[in-house]
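Standup notes
- DV: blocked on the single-chain target, sequence here:
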Amino acid sequence: MPIRRLPRATVDAVKLKGIGGEGRTDAAGLARAGGHMALAGVVSRVSGFARTIVVAAVLGTAAVGDAYNGANNLPNMFYELLLGGVLASAVVPFLTRARRQGRKRSREFTQRVMVAAVLGSAVVTALTVACAPLIVRVFVTDPEQRHLATWLAYLLLPQIFFYGVSVVVSAVLNVRDSFATAAWAPVVNNVIVLATFGLFALLPGPVTLTPTSMTTAQVLTIGIGTTAGIVGQAAWIVVALRRNGFAWSWRVRPLPYTWHPVRSGLPIMGWLLVYAMISQIGVAVTMRVAFDHGGVSIHTYAELLFQVPYGILAASVLTVLMPRISRAAAIGDHAAVITDLSRGARYLSVALIPVTMAMSLLGPGFAAVAFTGRVDADAAGLIGTAVACSAFGLAPFALVMLQMRVFYAYNDTRTPTVINIVMVVTKVAILALAATVLTSDVVIVMLSVASSLSYVAGAVTGHILLRRRYGLLGFSAVATTVHRVMWATVLAGAGGLAAIVLTHRTIGAPTIEQLITLTAGATVGTAVFLLAARVIGIPEIRAARTMLARS
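- DV (later): unblocked, structure below
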């Protein structure tokens, strides 16, 4: 459907009104809701980082660490392949449209969606657990490591069911404009896993962990404990839903009534499944290359560090925007969709471009401080190098996630699949070339770099397709914001780099040099950025400052 083109000032002035006369939040409301989620994100990422450090210290980055991290990635991989794309992408628009048909109809439809999701998750989980040995064999070639990874897979793959429950319940909360409570759920997971590895450290066992020396009690502890973290996360979200006033009723008959929401979603599910399968080709290639070069743990830890700023700054904005965009699309208010797209892109740029510079400058030093002594120095260096070299993909990654939400809001699942094909082809081609001509250490770093390059390709493709379909996107305002943020970021980077060099030359004690260098670089860089932003004038920062002052 063509969209009439509005002047930028008119587009930015649009205030979308919700269903049934309920007013929509404006930019300040978006910032406030995002701020609440960002606080939960900070605690979640800090506790998650503590979890990463503890796991690395206990298991290392050799065969045992790779077996655990590889097996722990399998539930995510197969959940996304078989359920994740359908649930995470389709549920919010479906439920948003159902709300337009009245409270009774909305509640009944939601009950059916939840029952269908639980039954589907249970079936998928049972089949995947039964195939655990075959799945592990695809990725792990070493017999001893494969044996350990298989046992861990049996214990970890049941997480798929609880991921499914978490996603569908979170979608219901989001449609009901409840964001903050569910955002704390990962903290529960992290606390349980930290307790699990604390218990693991107390168990009797070999001094040096190898796939053959681990005791049965040790394997069961980390396997069951890690899965218990996902169970706790799901339980927290279910309790949050009940406190929100929604009673999850099992009186809904599974058949034939739960077939209704499934049937209504069939026209878009085909492309979602194709999307998921394409994604997992990229994941499978990445895991195989990582196992072949002994870099599963290093790549996992680098990716976790890469995700920290995204989880704190970007995920909160995207989660708040999805119901807004879905409501606007449902009532045909296309101008409001474009407004939220432009606004989201501006806020993401302001948040993530400076962080990209910080990660590039401080990533190696931070990894050295965080991981040295817990893993060997070479592994810590590779983690830091991977983070620094792949940081440029942070803003494109957030942007392509925002672009896909616009397509999903209009029940268009074909276009995101096309974007994903571009990303996966880019990633696989880069990894194939790297694995052929580069050394193992460089290949391990390229695992992260290839992901970031694929995000750039996806963001460019997404913008072209959005522009072709919807006309003007209000991105002249985005370009202005990015230009200003880039100038402030360059000045901040120069200041931070100067502080790092000066501190490095001044302090001679190597034990404290890295920590003081990091502190000096981060402090000076942040101060210069805020000062430059004030002088240059970045409206989004002023709006955030005003919102914080009022709260």
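- Follow-up: The first helix runs from residue 8 to 13.
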